[in-house]
């Protein structure tokens, strides 16, 4: 496992970050323990979670396992605030008060006095951005967060947040966005802006909700996450997407690897991508994803994937 700087900051993250979105729902605590143990044994040190995941169960499981499976000082914890689902609906609140309350709740759940990276989970037009960012400044100055960033921000939103925090001498070091071979929108502006500002990108859904593993090429397996929610996968299986998936599978056959390994290797080699967040439902899925760290993809294959997915 490689560990790379997050942009131009001093924070280093694992090339593959362990995502916990399904912990407490699709993944029970015993399975989560197996996942974290396997990930740590592979050299991984970075865990990504959020206040709104699993109605709070996710962060509680993270807190129960850290210190047991891996020492707190050896793990980089990333969490996010600004989205909650306690009412049953998705509620976005990026006000200073809401963000502060959510961070303190996250720290309590995870049994730690600080997180290594704290992100605003999504953009919101209300309240004013200055208010939202004041919570990030508070988190750093109070010692609750070592570094701060944003998630799902467009290029101009990220740049505006960076400039406002720069006035407070608090660096914005990360933007966590969807980025994969089927979703390359970030390359229009966000990647270039991140490079210019020294902001590291963390990529969520690096396998396009499983589409890039090739398992949906012919049908939707009955035991897959998409089986009961076909709309979850529809945007990733149009004509263009299917051509990309076939190219990935062809490359995988030639390299003696799995399609998922090829897709992850392509992504983690992209400019400004500091890490890819892998969220596995099963230990077998996680083990397969971790093999991507050992895969060397020839330049001509990278170029072919670039062209077919452009």
Automatic annotation (TrEMBL):
SUPFAM superfamilies: NAD(P)-linked oxidoreductase (SSF51430). GO terms for cellular component: cytosol. InterPro entries: AKR (IPR020471), AKR_Detox_Biosynth (IPR050523), Aldo/ket_reductase_CS (IPR018170), NAD(P)_OxRdtase_dom_sf (IPR036812), NADP_OxRdtase_dom (IPR023210). GO terms for molecular function: oxidoreductase activity. Residues 16-309 form the NADP-dependent oxidoreductase domain. This is Aldo/keto reductase. It comes from Luteipulveratus mongoliensis.
């Amino acid at each position: 496992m490689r560990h790379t700087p997050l942009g131009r900051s001093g924070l280093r993250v694992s090339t593959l970050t362990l995502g916990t979105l399904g912990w407490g729902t699709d993944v029970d605590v015993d399975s989560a323990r197996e996942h974290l143990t396997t990930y740590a044994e592979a050299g991984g040190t970075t865990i990504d979670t959020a206040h709104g995941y699993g109605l709070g169960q996710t962060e509680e499981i993270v807190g129960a396992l850290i210190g047991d499976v891996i020492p707190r000082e050896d793990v980089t914890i990333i969490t996010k605030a600004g989205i909650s689902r306690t009412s049953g609906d998705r509620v976005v609140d990026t006000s200073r008060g809401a963000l502060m309350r959510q961070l303190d709740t996250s720290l309590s759940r995870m049994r730690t006095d600080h997180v290594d990276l704290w992100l605003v989970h999504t953009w919101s037009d209300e309240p004013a951005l200055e208010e939202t960012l004041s919570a990030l400044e508070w988190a750093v100055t109070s010692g609750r967060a070592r570094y701060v960033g944003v998630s799902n921000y467009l290029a101009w939103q990220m740049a505006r947040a960076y400039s406002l925090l720069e006035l407070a001498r608090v660096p914005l070091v990360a933007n966590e966005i969807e980025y994969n071979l089927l979703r390359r929108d970030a390359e229009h502006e966000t990647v270039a802006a991140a490079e210019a500002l020294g902001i590291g990108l963390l990529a969520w859904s690096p396998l396009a909700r499983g589409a890039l593993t090739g398992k949906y090429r012919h049908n939707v397996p009955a035991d897959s996450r998409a089986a009961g929610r076909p709309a979850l996968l529809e945007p990733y299986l149009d004509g263009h997407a299917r051509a990309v998936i076939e190219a990935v599978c062809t490359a995988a056959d030639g390299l003696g690897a799995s399609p998922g390994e090829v897709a992850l290797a392509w992504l983690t080699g992209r400019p400004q991508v500091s890490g890819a967040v892998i969220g596995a439902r099963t230990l077998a899925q996680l083990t397969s994803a971790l093999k991507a760290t050992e895969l060397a993809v020839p330049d001509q294959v990278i170029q072919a994937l670039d062209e077919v997915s452009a």
